[in-house]
Amino acid sequence: MSVRGVYLARLLRRIGWRKGGIALLVALLLGGVGSRFVQAQLAPNMLQLADLVRQLGPELPRLLGMEQPQSYLILVQNNHELRGTGGFISAVGRLTLDRGKVTDLDFVDSYALYRSDGLYPPPPAPMARYMNLPVLVLRDANWSPDFPTVAQVVRLLYRGETGIEVDGIVTVDLNAVKRIFGALGTLEVPGFEEPITGETIEAQIVRLWERPAEGEVALGESDQGAWWSQRKEFIPRLTEAALAKVQQGGANPLQLAAAALQALEDRSIQVWLKNSVAAAAMQERGWDGHLQGADGSDFLAVVDANLGYNKVDAAMQRAVDYQVSWPKGAGQPGQATLTLTYTHPVDADDPGCDLSPRYGKDYADLIARCYFAYVRVYVPAGSELVEATGVDPDSVESRRGEQRTQVFSGYFILPPRERKVVTFTYTLPAALQPDTYRLLVQRQSGTAPLPLTVAVEGASLSVLVDGRVWSWPGEP
Q1: Which of 10, 46, 60, 176 could link 263 by a cystine bridge, Cβ 3.0 to 4.6 Å?
Q2: What DSSP assignment string belongs to 115-137?
Q3: Does 246 or 370 have the greater pLDDT score?
Q4: Residue pair 159/205 in contact by the 8 Å Cβ criterion
Q5: What is the pTM assigned to this prediction?
Q6: Angle at Cα 433 formed by Cα 432 and Cα 434, nearest 5°?
């Protein structure tokens, strides 16, 4: 084992990791990852962790708070209500590391981060138009699908609310929670009717969400009763139980690290760090949630935002068909036709498609609502919109997007039991020609695996995109 590996093992033992499991793992990764033993024992994604730890090197003590305390925000995103970076920010936690130990871990309902006398920026135009939002508050700050952009907005809003400057921001959605708790094994959590596992946690969260706290009215008897007051209290319970199991040595560090890496790969966890070295490491791996369009390549990212104060994305089904041709011959701009099919499979009625906030009798009632969708399509800079159908005509817009992209957008409403087909037809930059054509598709964080059909100049392929990105004709 190298000197650096021995040093880190001692460091991690010193900062309170029980039984040295994590310390041994990281030390092996640093000092002996090239050995036959380690290569035989670690899965490929664990070798990614080895590379990351090696790249961070001297920055690790800073990130662990060995020089001064470090504060990290945890944004809990409910991807049943999609927003740009994955889901509505339902709760916000602040974790403080001081000399490697967790000295503070506190979660609050995202609605608590608002002051009537506070100064807030204006909201994105679609939120103002369709949701009647007067200002932008932290719970709605993840409008952009580019997480580094969102992190700067969240950092400023949080500092304005609390006066605290944070050193990093992490998103966690329900998919990540299922992965992490699956790796933790069976967990006893106060307030839950049965032990928690990765397979049952989502259903148990919903049941706890619906059950009134002692002395409160049942859901449905008051719009702002039990639902509102206790809908997020399970988050600190789950966090405390999970952290206790890890600190007491009851978790398998290899399985836990593998689950976290899988969540990073499918963007159910995204990480922004103020430390420039660490930020570059996250960006290099795509773990910082940035839009990944590349120069000289076609790019497609379909980003939905649920503007309906509901949880319809828990049931919404999506499919994408993308066709590219050069009808005017080589040297001329190619034409792209993007067809998006949305299916609302819930057998229910939502008379009038009421957009106003309302908390129904249970969680299922929030899923059996009309879908108020604002769709954005991120494409290469220089693309020009020809036509958009299936969205409200006066909602169609084309503008410059984040990370040197062009974005086309529109708004539509989809009732239960119905299907909506949305198309965007546009020309691609002239530099994209059939002999050198490449395509990178980035799946929106928080969405289910995406059925995708691509047809380019007669060649076609149908795939299920379940990772962060997918490329044509192969790995970029």
Answers
A1: 176
A2: -TT---PPPPHHHHHHH---S--
A3: 370
A4: no
A5: 0.87
A6: 130
HSE at residue 214, side-chain half, CA atoms within 13 A, is 1
Name the average pLDDT for the chain. 85
> What is the total residue count of the chain?
476
Q: What does the alpha-carbon distance between residue 170 and residue 472 come to, in Å, rounded to a whole number?
A: 30
Q: What is the DSSP string of 180-238?
A: HHHHH-SB--TT-SS-B-TTTHHHHHHHHHHSPPTTSPPTTS-TTSHHHHHTTTHHHHH
CA distance 264 to 266: 6
Fold designation for 70-285: Aminopeptidase (3.40.630)
Rg from Cα positions in the chain: 23
- Confidence bin at 395 (pLDDT 50/70/90): very high
Q: Could you give the CA distance from residue 178 to residue 158 in angstroms, rounded to a whole number?
A: 27
| CA–CA distance, 160 with 113 (Å, rounded to integer) | 10
Residue with the larger pLDDT of the pair 104 and 422: 422
Nearest-angstrom CA–CA distance, 33 and 46: 10
DSSP assignment, residue 422? E
Domain 298-472 in the same topology as domain 70-285: no
pLDDT (tens digit, 9 = 90+) per residue, 20-66? 333 333 333 333 333 333 344 445 666 777 788 888 888 999 999 99
C-alpha to C-alpha distance for 170 and 189, rounded to whole angstroms: 23
Q: Domains of the chain: which residue ranges?
A: 3-57, 70-285, 298-472
Longest dimension (CA), the chain: 73
Fold topology of 298-472: Immunoglobulin-like (2.60.40)
Report the half-sphere exposure of 59 (CA within 13 A, side-chain side). Answer: 16
Q: CA-to-CA distance for 67 and 76, rounded, in angstroms? A: 28
Of the two residues 103 and 419, the one the predictor is more confident about is 419
Strand ranges, E, within 264-370: 269-273, 298-306, 317-325, 335-343
User: Where does 286-334 show beta strands of DSSP type E?
Assistant: 298-306, 317-325
Q: Any residues with CB less than 8 A from the CB of 337 and at least 6 apart, and which?
A: 322, 323, 324, 423, 424, 425
Edge to edge, what strands does the sheet with 450-456 contain? 384-389, 419-427, 335-343, 317-325, 450-456, 459-465
What is the spatial distance between Cα 351 and Cα 334, in angstroms, rounded to a whole number? Answer: 43
Q: How far is CA 79 from CA 14, 241, 261, 312, in A?
A: 37, 23, 19, 10
Query: Please, which residues have CB within 8 angstroms of residue 319's CB and are 6 or more apart in sequence?
Result: 340, 341, 343, 450, 451, 452, 453
User: What's the confidence (pLDDT) of residue 154?
Assistant: 98
